[in-house]
């Protein structure tokens, strides 16, 4: 069979579109918080009544010796417990701060040892990152670590399976504050209130990600995040109930 130029062009165009769709599907599976293509994760439950008012306030990339302590003070003032996903190598350097966080009633999670992109990390490296971090945190706390959040939210098909084999529950989110690039606390607060309102309107609780640290440097400036948290708690308490992630474990 001989194809004319127009037919060849149409076939070529279809192939490009198919390849683009496949690539888009992989990106969705790897990065979108709610995607279940590469396995399920804890996000936030759909709740009725007062349950919709629940917010799991979570912080990634700490502990930060400069900004985690004032953040703990703000949380204590409002009697709010949060979940902190810690980078293992930072936790190893700030053991007393990790213990202080635990003593204040907060939940600790595994955020890998070096904060790699797990969508590009080998199975063996992924296992090493998670296993080493859990071992360090458990030695510091004297208690098991049960939750894991992948850096950047990125994963590959085996990532969540490896986490579960290590006894970890994968966690993503419903709202992210983009606080690492915000120019003001107000910008963070406005984004969070807008997106949490959408969760509430759809009947879902909110799993909110902010950052008390940074994978780029252990003492990143998170003053804007701390100020935003102060504003958010003043706004939401006592209208909304703050929980740690174990409240949603099925």
Question: What attributes does this structure have?
Answer:
250 residues, alpha/beta, TIM Barrel, 2 domains, 6-stranded parallel β-sheet, two-stranded parallel sheet, 8 helices, 8 strands, 13% strand, disordered N terminus
Structure description:
By secondary structure, the chain is an alpha/beta fold. It has 2 domains: 1-31; 49-248, TIM Barrel, CATH 3.20.20.370. Helices cover 44% and strands 13% of the residues. It has helices at 5-31, 68-77, 88-93, 95-103, 123-141, 159-165, 185-201, 223-236; strands spanning 54-62, 83-86, 107-110, 147-148, 169-170, 175-176, 206-211, 241-243. Strands 1, 2, 3, 6, 7 and 8 form a 6-stranded parallel beta sheet that branches. The protein has a two-stranded parallel sheet with strand order 4-5. Strand 6 (175-176), helix 7 (185-201) and strand 7 (206-211) form a beta-alpha-beta unit. Helix 2 (68-77) packs parallel to helix 8 and helix 7 (185-201) packs across helix 8 (223-236). The longest helix has 27 residues, at 5-31. The protein is globular. Mean pLDDT is 90; it is low at 1-23.
- Overall mean pLDDT: 90
Measured distance between first and last alpha carbons = 59 Å
What is the CATH class name of the largest domain?
Alpha Beta
| Tertiary shape | globular
Strand content: 5-15%
Largest sheet: 6 strands, parallel
SSE string, helix = H, strand = E?
HEHEHHEHEHEEHEHE
The CATH superfamily label of the largest domain reads Glycoside hydrolase/deacetylase
Flag low-confidence runs: 1-23
The CATH architecture classification of the largest domain is: Alpha-Beta Barrel
What is the number of independent domains?
A: 2
Helix/strand class: alpha/beta
> Do you know the CATH topology of the largest domain?
TIM Barrel
Q: Please give the share of residues in helix.
A: 40-55%
Please work out how many helical segments DSSP would assign.
8
Overall radius of gyration: 20 Å
Count of individual beta strands: 8
């Amino acid at each position: 069979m001989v194809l004319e130029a127009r037919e060849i062009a149409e076939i070529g165009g279809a192939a490009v579109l198919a390849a683009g769709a496949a690539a888009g599907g992989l990106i969705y599976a790897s990065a979108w918080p709610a995607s279940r293509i590469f396995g399920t994760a804890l996000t936030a439950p759909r709740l009725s009544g007062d349950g919709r008012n629940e917010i799991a306030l979570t912080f990634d990339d700490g502990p930060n010796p400069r900004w985690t302590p004032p953040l703990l003070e703000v949380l204590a003032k409002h009697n709010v417990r949060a979940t902190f996903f810690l980078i293992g190598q930072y936790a190893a350097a700030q053991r007393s701060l990790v213990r202080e966080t635990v003593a204040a009633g907060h939940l600790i999670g595994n955020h890998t040892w070096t904060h790699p992109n797990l969508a590009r990390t080998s199975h063996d490296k992924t296992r090493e990152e998670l296993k080493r971090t859990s071992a360090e945190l458990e030695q510091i706390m004297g208690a098991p670590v049960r939750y894991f959040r992948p850096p950047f939210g990125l994963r590959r098909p085996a990532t969540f399976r490896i986490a579960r084999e290590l006894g970890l529950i994968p966690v993503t989110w419903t709202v992210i504050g983009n606080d690492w690039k915000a120019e003001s606390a107000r910008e963070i607060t406005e984004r969070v209130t807008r997106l949490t309102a959408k969760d509430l309107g759809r009947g879902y609780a909110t799993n909110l990600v902010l950052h008390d640290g940074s994978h780029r440097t252990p003492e990143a400036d998170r003053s804007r995040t701390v100020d935003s948290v102060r504003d958010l708690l003043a706004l939401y308490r006592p209208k909304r109930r703050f929980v740690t992630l174990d409240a949603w474990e099925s």
